[in-house]
Amino acid sequence: MQQIIGYMFIVVGLGFDVFGCIGLLRLPDVYNRLQATTKCVTLGTCSILLGTFVLKGLGTTGVKAILVAIFLLLTSPVAAHALARGAHKSGVKLWPKSVVDKYGEDGN
Q1: Which 8-state DSSP code applies to residue 99?
Q2: How confident is the model at residue 94, as a pLDDT?
Q3: CA distances in angstroms from 101 to 31, 38, 88, 96, 98, listed in the order given
Q4: Domain 2-106 has what CATH class?
Q5: Distance in angstroms (rounded) separating the CA atoms of residues 34 and 77
Q6: Relative to the CA of 90, which of 13, 72, 101, 107 has its CA 20 to 30 Å away?
Q7: Taking the alpha carbons of 14, 17, 22, 25 in that order, is the dihedral positive or negative?
Q8: Contact at 8 Å (CB) between 40 and 80?
């Protein structure tokens, strides 16, 4: 039963990673691409790491998987925000059909 649950987490994680990669290729501008990769790939990779933890238990590999997942959850949103802010400050335009530009409204 434990193996089935672990493999289910891994398969779900792979699905989210695939959708994140598709979003990276298909979405129109850097800001939408960042959102797709940050949300999908973070959730997918954390799911894969959780599946690894379920399969390996509290051994060395399982503990490392949990530590990597925690590090990923803490750093991925911050990195995406920094990239989006840097892109906006360097003049990368939003997709013409974008609805809101909070950075532009704030005058940053």
Answers
A1: -
A2: 84
A3: 11, 19, 10, 11, 8
A4: mainly alpha
A5: 10
A6: 72
A7: negative
A8: no
The residue type found at 45 is T
Q: Compute the Cα dihedral for 69, 23, 84, 30 and give only its sign.
A: positive
> How many angstroms separate the CA atoms of 73 and 89, rounded?
25
Residue length, the chain? 108
6 in Cβ contact with 54 (< 8 Å): yes
The model carries a pTM of: 0.85
DSSP line for 25-87: HHSSSHHHHHHHIIIIIHHHHHHHHHHHHHHHTTSHHHHHHHHHHHHHHHHHHHHHHHHHHHH
Q: Provide the token pair at 41.
A: 């790939």
Backbone angles phi, psi at 79, to 5 degrees: -65, -40
Question: Where do the structural domains in the chain lie, given as residue ranges?
Answer: 2-106
Residue-wise pLDDT for 36-77, tens only, equals: 889 998 999 999 999 999 999 999 999 999 999 999 999 999
Token pair of 97, please?
């059909």
